[in-house]
Amino acid sequence: MSINRRDLFRTAGMALGVAGAGAFLSACGTSAPAAGPVRNTGVTTARPGGVLRAVFTGGGAAENLDPFGSGSPVDFVRSDVVFDSLFTLHAGEVVPALATGVEVGPGATSFTLKLRDGVKWHDGTPFTAQDVVYSFTYMSSADRAYPSELGRYFDFTAVQVRDPLTLVVPARQPIGDPALFLAAFPGKVVKNGAAFAGTTAIGTGAYQLTAFEAGREARLKRFEDHWGGKAPADELVLLSLTDPQAKVNAVVTDQADYAGDIPFTTAKTGVASADLEVRTAGEANRTAFGWVLNTTRAPFDDPRARKAVRLAVDRQALVDSVLLGYGVPGNDLLCAGAKYFSSRAPITRNVDEAKRLVAESGAAKTEVVIRTAEWEIGYNASTQLLVEQLKAIGLNARAEVVGPAEFFEPNAVAAANAVAFSSGGIPLTVMYGRLSAYPPLGLADEKLTAAFGTAVGSADEAARAQAWADVQDVMFDHGNTVVWGQADVLSLARKTVAGVDVRDQPKYPYLGKAGLA
Known about the structure:
Elements (H helix, E strand, L loop, with lengths): L4 H8 L9 H6 L23 E7 L15 H10 L4 E4 L2 E4 L2 E6 L5 E6 L13 H12 L9 H4 L6 E4 L2 E5 L7 H7 L22 E7 L3 E6 L12 E7 L2 H9 L5 E2 L4 H6 L6 E5 L6 E7 L9 H10 L2 H8 L4 E3 L21 H11 L5 E6 L6 H13 L4 E6 L8 H6 L2 E6 L4 H9 L9 H12 L3 H18 L2 E7 L2 E5 L2 E2 L16 E2 L1
Parallel strand pairs: 1-10, 1-11, 15-16, 15-17
Antiparallel strand pairs: 2-3, 4-5, 5-7, 6-7, 8-9, 9-10, 11-19, 12-19, 13-17, 13-18, 14-18, 20-21
Helix pairs in contact: 9-11, 15-16
């Protein structure tokens, strides 16, 4: 099975934000000392009117308007305001959007989906169940390079339409909380018959597209008939840049009002303007940095060797040197901030015990290759530091540094002993589902498999919570994820920018309620 690179984009992010703006700031002259990242110090509600200009990391000529075919942060941000989902996530909880609710059928093998009445497409036509049926078929088509993962869980070929606002969807396995799946993967809805070969797109979102140039910018105007109420700004301009310094530069030189996911050096150095502030998305929206160990190959098929790595890592040193202190040590579990996440103290570093486990498991006999790329800035630096720490416990480790374009090449990932990885606080269902779908990134464990099945299939909240606790007990005890740090997600904004909201991940904020105060 190949790795769905588009979904790993969204899982792992494409931060370009751990280092990098120092050269630009030096070139601009002396900057004011930073007081530290803050939560928005201004008003939180934007006033009606005006133009909001925001800049995000782009994908160059590969950017496109297909919400299921694009893969850069600016693509995700644009899609979120042009197209609506059936459900969204807010603070880890499911929020109704184009759908108002679901009714789980007997045995959790199907669900009835109720749609919102009165929703209009940007061209004025009504939104109906047929649009949802088409969207399900479109996103999961085998002809797509990367079909939606929702097709693994639901049989979209057998959807039944009961009336214009009701449909029944069969599941391929028991799914106790289908709304969470539709919110988390996510299930964007496109118009019946839609195609995205040109520079136009019709959605139901808060903004409608007026101009698009891949790798440069998109211009959008407020959709006056949005079901969720009018967006505050008259116009939204989304700029696409690939260099982190250029994103900072765009705000400093008044080409943009907001830059998402900026370098930590900007926060450390500061910006020479009383009108700007470095913002943090907060503790609940940090990004986990670490590695996934390949348990299909020696030495990490042995839980003792996996434990040795965890004991060898100097988490605080990595936070201080790679994140410049903007974060906290990780506890080796992914999805911090998500519902059901197990908050427990990181394992205590113990080099002597790590050496003993290496010797006991015979791990020193195998070369340990750790695959990395500057997919996010900090991957390579942290991996090089890990290599030195692993050598100190007797492992023959080396970093395999490749380019971002080839980083997730499936055969190469399968051949490596470990791969650098990162993740925001996405639902545990998404993370563990994606890892288990690809054996070199998953953990073959009977207790884990059983607990995951219960967590996904149970309609009982208490049973789900206990199952997720069991999943994480296994991962903490002898799992294959090594999370060394939880990194703050930072942005640069004018103090008048308000209403920026986190729905899915903070690196791709929702701007449908954003504007200027």
